[in-house]
């Protein structure tokens, strides 16, 4: 029971000390989350209150079903961008259909995550290799930052790819609004300075590193307050500065998302991509934080936790959510001990939705855009490209292609390309396993690669050592390799497959071994196996291979060599 | 040059003896191929002459570009069924658009195969595990056999799935035609008897096994002759027996397939599936036959050969082709020595198209259906299900789901399901690699699994031996495994990763190792590596891991144990 409701684990020992710590952390995260929620809703093309709604019920759901003690869920940048792309594909931004599409995305995504969690399919997230995710996040960061430039300039622009964004911006650049630019650039400058310059100063004047970090993270609120006041006092909205305007006051609306089979099937693939990206990002944050306190998270249950959050979001006027990196770190640093901190944050945001929204009327959109730009630029890390290039050309190819496709063809094409490239490269490598023709190190029982060591071999006998499990991805390689060896050596009589590193032989590889066995017999060569591991041999005993095998099974490669190389061996002895 | 034009290899040494052998083989294959071509065209829903056309130019193209000495290409059963499904999805059977769709399928499929060959992407065929292919072929065989029953009964029926076929047949069963049933059942009975009963008789009366086999395979021609004569003499076509009717006389029409972007994109995925299934089937036949004479085929060049065949088919009024199992075996047994035998077969079929078609006017469709049923029932092998079940539950799941989806949702859904299931199962296994916590075998330098052997361990030190390469598919597993180990053991100070079986560490696994290193440091545990292979260590040296590693790299696990277990080790010594 505690497995499926992790709340039961920590709620039992919840005491006043934990409560205090959680409440303090929740207050800090709330202050950080208010401007972020509004900004990410803007990025997703949704009304600002949707960002607040997505920061209430999802947090409560995660507190019940999640396993991370410090993860703070809610709207995040990359998922907001993916939501904008997906919803924009089926409806016009600003229309009720667009908002409905965001709710459906959250619901489908929540259902996918929950089902994956219950079926323990978390391993499917392995479809995304690290270079692909890193490339995708970097490219998304660039796309997001560029997409927000229009708000800093006070112009209209659109597009889901870099070329489109640049083209539409260059067409409207003439309508740029000076006061908006001033607010935007000042906010950007201040926020960047806070990131880089404030923390060292705070530390120098005596603040603890952790406190300095937290103060730095909550600084955007200051920009929000100052800029809102400035716009209100100077009536800058009359001078063309776009403002957030009236945000409906009240708790999130409760209701089921629209059921429209056509819309659901159109949004299924985008929702799947959102689920996978959201899960991968969230679980890595949760694992990092858990490890710091020698705690563990349960990835399958995390899927359920995130699934419940998204379903909750879908029924309370939100949009897709996941665990956010920055806010989780703040939550952790501020001392959150249990997921209850998330529930208290939800209460804070609910209070904001009830009472604070009128105060945000004059908040300039440019400030929200500046918040987004500063947040996402920390995601952009092009130096990784150089590191990956140095380490592995294959991984570099996967990363670079994901970045380029994301920038030039959009986020969905980017993720799909990344998955396809990762898998293709993996299959390519897996289909050519490490293997070596081995010979005997003279006067020992050791067998080594003939290309790297001075070893004894016999023309009528060849030993192939395969260094990986035999499965359908490399079964064909094995067939070709063996045929090549036999075709090149007319004098060959015995082929030994040395299986010391083979942990598994699947049905495809079994079939290949049977084919190899028959083909070699037809060509007058006997097939032997040596050093087969116990479990592998047990399973082979359930097949026909052992009965049909033209040669023998040898416990050790040394035994095999002694028996099969015997004539030449004795000749060698005589000399 | 000979690499891309294999004809240059064998044409240089071509002599009179080889010519005689090839011509004899070609004559036998021609006799076998005439009824088969007509029958498979019927199965594909195409006019009968299309089957003949697909057996002319493709064979010439393969003779130039193919590497197998014995493979006989042309129309085959499974590809014909897949063509019917794909073309039926975009056009009505019997319409000119349907014939055009078949040509486009051949062209796209030819281009895909050629490009895969040039880019050496043959490894992508590894996407299909053996149980999936076997399941798909068995299910297709059942679908094909059932689809031909309507011709045996002389009724109309349609459908691409088993339930549809049975439903439409049961609706029209009342219109069954007695003379047609008589011809169909007699043909079926005779053909089955030829398969099972004729060969032993021929061998008993003194024929060589090989001759008996060849006579058995060409027996369908006898049925064609007898039934055509019977229908003509008794004028059974007037009594409702469907006949082939007028087949246009002449050589294949030469012309480019229709270029229609909408149709091309609709047919791309079916063409891809046809390419992959065709290649996998053909290459396995070619490898089996090559091995019997210790020859080799070149899989990448085989892709080019099959690609060229399909392109040739597309420009000469054919439809998708591949290497056929039965006819290749006959070709081989009849003594074909080079791909020239295929070219001579093409000449034979061209002669048939020019002169023989009028003689086929009264050929009953039921006889062609009987030929198909007898041919495909040899593909149906449900006993494999039992064997695979005994060997591996995972592989059984892949096979059974492929069979069920193919039967109930059609061939395209079947192949796609098979690929997805194969890959998912593979990833699932690959994401949970073999690994063991190891301890020292007392008084030795050997380290073994603590669960299986009596070994020494130390509470502050733990060694995890990973038995597979570390890549993105298992990187997450490694992170979780390590966190679990550390979370369970508060006294732990040192974790050693023993890498004796690690052939590769990709960028994702490197990232995970870096994350593990940081997380362990945060938790007060040092991470060490032991027995890292040379090439792996060389590559790690190009990353930051070695600088950042909290612990050390040990050449041998013994050294690591000696140094890190030291205090407890000495205590042990004193006792």
Describe the structure in your own words.
With 575 residues, the first copy, chain A, is mainly alpha-helical. Chain A folds into 2 domains: 15-424, no CATH class; 435-574, Transcription Regulator spoIIAA. Chain A has helices at 7-11, 16-43, 48-53, 57-65, 77-88, 96-118, 130-153, 162-172, 178-204, 209-218, 220-234, 261-292, 299-315, 325-333, 340-356, 365-377, 383-391, 393-409, 411-430, 472-488, 507-522, 534-540, 545-548, 557-564, 566-574; strands at residues 72-74, 322-324, 435-440, 447-449, 461-466, 494-498, 526-530, 553-554. In chain A, the strands form 2 sheets. Chain A has a 6-stranded mixed β-sheet. In chain A, helix 21 (507-522) links the parallel strand 6 (494-498) and strand 7. In chain A, helix 4 (57-65) runs antiparallel to helix 13 (299-315) and helix 9 packs antiparallel against helix 10 (209-218). The longest helix of chain A has 32 residues, at 261-292. At the A-B interface, helix 7, helix 12, helix 17, helix 18 and helix 19 of A face helix 12, helix 17, helix 18, helix 19 and helix 20 of B.
List the helices and strands and how they pair.
Two copies of one chain form a homodimer.
Chain A: H1 7-11, H2 16-43, H3 48-53, H4 57-65, E1 72-74, H5 77-88, H6 96-118, H7 130-153, H8 162-172, H9 178-204, H10 209-218, H11 220-234, H12 261-292, H13 299-315, E2 322-324, H14 325-333, H15 340-356, H16 365-377, H17 383-391, H18 393-409, H19 411-430, E3 435-440, E4 447-449, E5 461-466, H20 472-488, E6 494-498, H21 507-522, E7 526-530, H22 534-540, H23 545-548, E8 553-554, H24 557-564, H25 566-574
Parallel strand pairs in A: 5-6, 6-7, 7-8
Antiparallel strand pairs in A: 1-2, 3-4, 3-5
């Amino acid at each position: 029971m505690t497995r499926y409701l992790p709340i039961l684990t920590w709620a039992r020992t919840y005491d006043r000390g934990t409560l205090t710590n959680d409440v303090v952390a929740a207050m800090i995260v709330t202050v950080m989350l208010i401007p972020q929620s509004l900004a990410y809703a803007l990025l997703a093309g949704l009304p600002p209150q949707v960002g607040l709604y997505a920061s209430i019920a999802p947090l409560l759901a995660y507190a019940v079903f999640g396993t991370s003690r410090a993860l703070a869920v809610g709207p995040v940048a990359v998922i907001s961008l993916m939501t904008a792309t997906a919803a924009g594909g089926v409806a016009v931004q600003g229309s009720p259909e667009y908002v409905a599409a965001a709710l459906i995305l959250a619901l489908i995504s929540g259902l996918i995550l929950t089902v994956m969690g219950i079926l323990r399919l978390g391993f499917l997230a392995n479809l995304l290799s690290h270079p692909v995710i890193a490339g995708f996040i970097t490219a998304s960061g660039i796309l997001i930052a560029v997409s927000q430039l229009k708000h800093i300039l006070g112009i209209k622009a659109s597009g889901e790819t870099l070329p489109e964004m640049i083209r539409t911006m260059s067409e409207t650049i003439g309508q740029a609004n000076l006061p908006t630019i001033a607010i935007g650039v000042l906010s950007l400058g201040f926020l960047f300075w806070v990131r880089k310059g404030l923390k060292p100063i705070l530390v120098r004047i005596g603040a603890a590193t952790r406190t300095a970090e937290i103060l730095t993270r909550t600084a955007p609120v200051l920009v929000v307050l100052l800029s809102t006041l400035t716009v209100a006092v100077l009536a800058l909205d009359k001078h063309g500065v776009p403002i957030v305007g009236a945000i409906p006051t009240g708790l999130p609306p409760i209701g089921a998302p629209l059921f429209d089979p056509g819309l659901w099937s159109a949004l299924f693939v985008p929702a799947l991509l959102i689920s996978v990206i959201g899960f991968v990002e969230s679980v890595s944050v949760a694992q990092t934080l858990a490890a710091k306190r020698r705690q563990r998270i349960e990835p399958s249950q995390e899927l359920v936790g995130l699934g419940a959050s998204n379903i909750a979001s879908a029924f309370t006027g939100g949009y897709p959510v996941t665990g956010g990196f920055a806010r989780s770190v703040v939550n952790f640093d501020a001392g959150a001990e249990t997921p209850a901190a998330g529930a208290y944050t939800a209460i804070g945001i609910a209070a904001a939705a009830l009472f604070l929204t009128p105060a945000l009327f004059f908040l300039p959109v440019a400030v929200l855009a500046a918040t987004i730009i500063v947040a996402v630029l920390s995601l952009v890390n092009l130096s990784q490209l150089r590191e990956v290039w140095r380490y592995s050309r294959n991984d570099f190819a996967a990363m670079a292609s994901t970045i380029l496709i994301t920038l030039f063809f959009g986020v969905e094409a980017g993720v799909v390309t990344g998955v396809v490239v990762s898998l293709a490269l993996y299959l390519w490598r897996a289909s050519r396993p490490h293997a070596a023709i081995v010979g005997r190190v003279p006067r020992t029982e050791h067998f080594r690669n003939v290309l790297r060591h001075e070893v004894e071999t016999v023309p009528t006998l060849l030993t192939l050592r395969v260094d990986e499990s035999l499965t359908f991805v490399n079964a064909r390689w094995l067939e070709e390799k063996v045929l090549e060896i036999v075709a090149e050596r007319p004098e060959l009589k015995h082929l030994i497959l040395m299986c010391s590193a083979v942990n598994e032989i699947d049905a495809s590889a079994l079939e290949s071994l049977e084919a190899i066995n028959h083909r070699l017999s037809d060509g007058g060569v006997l097939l032997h196996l040596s050093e087969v591991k116990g479990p592998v041999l047990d399973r082979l005993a359930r097949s026909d291979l052992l009965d049909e095998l033209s040669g023998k099974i040898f416990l050790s490669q040394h035994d095999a060599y002694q028996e099969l190389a015997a004539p030449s061996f004795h000749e060698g002895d005589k000399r």
